[in-house]
From TrEMBL:
Annotated protein name in UniProt: Biotin/lipoyl-binding protein
Keyword presence, Cell membrane: no
Superkingdom per UniProt: Bacteria
Residue span(s) of domain Lipoyl-binding: 50-129
Keyword field contains Cell membrane: no
Organism: Soehngenia longivitae
Keywords: Biotin
Amino acid sequence: MRKFKINVNGQSYEVEVEEIGSNENQVSQSATVKKPIEKQIEKSQPKKEVAEEIKPQQGQEIVEAPMPGNIWKVVAQEGQQIKAGDIILILEAMKMENEILAPRDGKLVKMIAKEGSTVNTGDKLAIIE
């Protein structure tokens, strides 16, 4: 083992290198590290989702995403009568499928979530009346 001291972007590191094979074709070459390109990026304004503008009417309840993830499958359809505990959609989060259940009996007035879409915690998924 041979020890070397290298400098990268002003930081000093001590490394050990194991020599493999014979010393016959040894070539000494100094390594160069290119400085990363710095680029200014302007902050973008967050897009206002259509789902955020939906407000429930009296007697309606909004089902929200309990965690961030992807809508894997929409089970219930708009206009369908559902009971508390019925699966309305399946949310995939951290490689696990999570059943999103209806919080109460009623009619599924609007399915806001679309299969394949990404949602964050608190995003509106559906409206039950």
